[in-house]
Amino acid sequence: MARNVTPxxxxxxxxxxxxxxxxxTLDRTSPLPLWAQLEAELRRRLDAGEFDDRFPTDIDLVxxxxxxxxxxxxxxxxxxxxxxxxxxxxxxxxxxxxxxDQPLGVxxxxxxxxxxxxxxxxxIVTSLKRVVEADAAGAIGLPEETELLCLERIRCAGGLPLAxxxxxxxxxxxxxxxxxxxxxxxxxxxxxxxxxxxxxxxxENITSVAPDRRLREHLQLTHRQPLLRxxxxxxxGDQPVEYRLTYIxxxxxxxxxxxSNERPATINAEQIETNPNAPRRRGLQSRREPSSDDxxxxxxxxx
Length: 303
Prior knowledge:
alpha+beta; Arc Repressor Mutant, subunit A; 6-stranded antiparallel beta sheet
């Protein structure tokens, strides 16, 4: 194992064959604790896919970064807490796959789906304002001039962006939500608690789309990998409650459906077209998918 000291005082080690393949540096002069530096470095390398075959052992990391075992354990403990890694008896530390299963045919909350997996989640609110959005209103059967409350969030799981979410709700029923901090709460929970409204039925369309530039920035995508586009209309009885667009990283999210030969399917293509609560054909055709060079959607939405 060769070790060198860089001019700024950082210790660099070159790992032996068969341990870790990167040339590792930590800055001993930085006020940031070594375990936090190591955590950030391991997260960077995880994001780059360097540990797809196997995650290094504690001893590998001690030798590679010239730190104590306690420093390594503290960094690993933090990544475990965030749901990035987890320890398995007999296997050591392994990479936790950020995959979330969601059954179809029920009202679900992405907030609860992530929390149920024990993964730390939060949202970055990019916009919460009163708007008039004709396509969003028309999609749930409201007049085009209806005032709506628009909530835009980047949904993060384990510290990494999972989805970009836009929801439009009639301002007349959702105005009390203007003061809510949506960084760590469910829209449906707040809607029920503050407005006395709970969606009881709805529809959802799921398609695959290529992200535009803004979506790539929001979700930290390094290339134009396809996203799942979830389009939803929600109602409380006959009252329109919400129109939503969610763009979610497909490699982290799986939709699950159950079926039985004792229960025939209740929805088909013809029924969708004639369903009065489904998005109108005209509105969907006017809502174009973003191009690769778009910096912002032409109609104020992402799609």
